[in-house]
């Protein structure tokens, strides 16, 4: 069924900036409250969640970059617009909120497009979770990543932190960051595998967009399969995973991109993938 599919180049964002490359393949989501270091609000949480859910049906966007304006990535939930109101909510209302924030991470992980975070400056709380939920992260020497939840009297278990972070940087390091709430420096992030690479502040967005372009020009149906199995195989045994990959690869071998790659190899040319 394809009647739900639609282009996303003309998406009109309300709580952040959304831009798409001329060919529609690479989208950039920019958190845009630089005067407050780009905090999230109830509305921006929900809109980001809904946008990534809808990217499942995008006909154009093949890779997404997430970044922040003004030299910072995201300072987390807005203290005045979120944390204050939370102190007045009932338990059912609180659970609605925490499930919504978790659904944002689920949506990032479930969309077939690779998501690349370009992280400069402050990357804290829910902002750190958005970066963590991305497929890859490019940072700057000024990047400071902190899972601040304990600083406001909450558990380090938030939006999937206790499962995602240990898998990324190891149980011991994750435990330290989640218990203490201290900032992880850019060099630590690179050494520990949180960041894929570091770039000067003026170059990090361009580097992330170039990586997104490389992926968007690749076999994007197959990239979606890779992303899906990278996520699903966390909960599989080795034998199950090998069988899942056998089935997935057999499906990919039926794509036109697989044939294009073979024909290009025979002709000693570079393949031009179209994602089908």
Structure in words:
- With 276 residues, the chain is an alpha/beta fold.
- 46% of the residues lie in helices and 13% in strands.
- It contains eleven helices and nine strands.
- Strands 1-2-3-4-6-9 form a six-stranded mixed β-sheet, with helices on both faces.
- Helix 1 (42-54) links the parallel strand 2 and strand 3.
- Helix 5 (161-169) packs across helix 6 and helix 9 packs antiparallel against helix 10 (238-252).
- The longest helix is centred in the middle third of the chain and has 20 residues, at 91-110.
- The radius of gyration is 19 Å and the shape is globular.
- The model has no long low-confidence stretch (mean pLDDT 95).
Brief account:
The chain is of the alpha/beta class and 276 residues long. It contains eleven helices and nine strands.
Would you spell out the secondary-structure blueprint of this structure?
Elements: E1 17-20, E2 26-31, H1 42-54, E3 63-68, H2 79-86, H3 91-110, E4 115-119, E5 122-124, H4 126-133, E6 136-139, E7 144-146, H5 161-169, H6 171-180, E8 183-184, H7 186-192, E9 197-198, H8 204-216, H9 220-232, H10 238-252, H11 256-266
Parallel strand pairs: 2-3, 3-4, 4-6, 5-7, 6-9
Antiparallel strand pairs: 1-2, 7-8
Helix pairs in contact: 1-3, 3-4, 5-6, 9-10
């Amino acid at each position: 069924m394809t009647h739900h599919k639609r282009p996303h180049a003309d998406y009109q964002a309300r709580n952040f900036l959304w831009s798409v490359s001329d060919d529609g393949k690479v989208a950039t989501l920019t958190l845009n409250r630089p005067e407050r270091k780009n905090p999230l609000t109830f509305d921006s949480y929900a809109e980001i969640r809904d946008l990534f859910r809808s990217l499942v049906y995008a006909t154009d966007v093949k890779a997404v970059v997430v970044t922040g304006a003004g030299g910072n990535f995201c300072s987390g939930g807005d203290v005045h617009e979120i944390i204050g109101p939370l102190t007045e909510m009932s338990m059912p209302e609180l659970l609605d909120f925490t499930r919504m924030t978790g659904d944002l991470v689920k949506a990032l992980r479930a969309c077939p497009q690779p998501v690349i975070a370009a992280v400069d400056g402050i990357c804290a709380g829910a902002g750190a979770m958005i970066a963590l939920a991305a497929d890859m992260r490019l940072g700057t020497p000024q990047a400071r990543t902190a899972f601040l939840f304990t600083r406001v009297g909450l558990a380090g278990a938030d939006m999937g932190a206790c499962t995602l972070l240990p898998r990324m940087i190891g149980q011991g390091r994750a435990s330290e960051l989640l218990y203490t709430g201290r900032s992880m420096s850019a060099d630590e992030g690179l050494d520990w595998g949180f960041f894929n690479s570091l770039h000067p502040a003026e170059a990090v967005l361009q580097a992330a967009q170039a990586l997104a372009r490389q992926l968007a020009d690749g076999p994007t149906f197959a990239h979606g399969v890779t992303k899906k199995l990278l996520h699903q195989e966390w909960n599989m045994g080795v034998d199950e995973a090998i069988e899942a990959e056998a089935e997935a690869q057999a499906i990919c071998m039926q794509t036109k991109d697989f044939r294009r790659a073979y024909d290009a190899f025979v002709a000693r040319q570079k393949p031009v993938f179209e994602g089908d």
